[in-house]
Specification:
This protein is of the alpha/beta class. 31% of the residues lie in helices and 25% in strands. The strands form six sheets. It has a seven-stranded mixed β-sheet, sandwiched between helices. A two-stranded antiparallel sheet has the order 1-2. The two termini are 33 Å apart.
């Protein structure tokens, strides 16, 4: 559904009218008691990077020799931009979920154990495609994810918002105290990657190239409570990949245990194809 009054560069103005501001650029629809984050809380939380995808839309760049998360932008891998976002705010406990292909090896070769970046990185390696749910299950059962965690798919890059990690973590902790078990970050719209054909009773009236569509879009950042682990462990990926959004998150949403946080669309880029990669390059170089 299109909204002519809403554009990619002004979604924050719309959010200010209908939501409660709970961070520099984060919004919710209900009141939360936000408290300062302690250094101990930051050290205890794990930042999980889900990095086992094939990156099919960028194979012409990676040649399937490296992960799409290792494509270099402005002198460092795309994933390093997301890594630095968290690390620069004092989060240094990471877990990378990778596969056993050349793609996964390219990630491990660059990051190693994290010590050269003054961080700790654990790895959970899948030997067949498990999907996000199966990958989380493997990491939990192997002990690589030990406690409540923040999942950030690193190709969903947060741009122009350095304090995002602190703001989101505050909201996550506040939500847990309110009884929520999962907090998901959404953007209030995204650019539809195709042209829209507008008609009246089948008669074409207009062509709109890549319109901005107002729909809350999950941007690949979640806070997940340890209380969810039993549900994740019940997942069965033996017959094929299992997505956590379609299983665990859906079940919890129906039970009222999932909170949505809104990030203005102008602060998010999903780097998963040529146009978005070029856009990310332009944004980084303009800083």
């Amino acid at each position: 559904m299109m909204h002519d009054s809403l554009e990619i560069n002004n979604t924050e103005e719309e959010l200010k009218k209908s939501c409660i501001k709970v961070g520099e650029h984060l919004y919710v629809k209900k009141k939360l008691k936000i408290e300062p984050v302690t250094e101990k809380e930051k050290k205890n939380i794990q930042i999980v990077f889900l990095m086992g995808g094939g990156g099919t839309r960028l194979l012409h760049v990676t040649k399937d020799e490296i992960s799409k998360h290792m494509i270099e932008v402005n002198g460092k891998p795309t994933s390093k931009h997301s890594f630095d976002l968290w690390k620069n705010k004092g989060f240094d406990n990471f877990c990378f979920l990778v596969d056993d292909s050349k793609r996964g090896e390219s990630i491990k070769k660059f990051y190693r154990d994290g010590k050269s970046f003054d961080a700790n990185i654990a790895y959970s390696v899948e030997h067949k495609k498990l999907g996000s749910g199966g990958a989380f299950k493997l990491a939990i059962e192997s002990g690589n994810i030990k406690n409540s965690f923040i999942n950030h798919q690193p190709d969903d890059v947060v741009v122009g918002y350095e304090n995002f990690p602190i703001d989101f973590f505050k909201i996550f902790l506040a939500a847990l105290k309110e009884g929520y078990q999962v907090v998901i970050v959404c953007a209030p719209g995204t650019v539809y990657p195709f042209g829209e054909v507008v008609d009246e009773n089948g008669d074409v009236k207009d062509f709109v190239e890549k319109p901005f569509v107002r729909k809350d879009t999950h941007i690949g950042v979640d806070g997940v409570s340890r209380e969810v682990f039993p549900l994740i462990k019940e997942l069965d990926a033996s017959k094929g990949p299992v997505k956590i959004e379609k299983t665990v998150f859906k079940k919890l949403a129906r039970a009222g245990k999932v909170l949505k946080v809104l990030l203005p669309s102008e602060y998010w880029i999903a780097v998963n194809d040529d146009p978005s990669l070029r856009k990310f390059e332009e944004v980084i170089k303009s800083k």
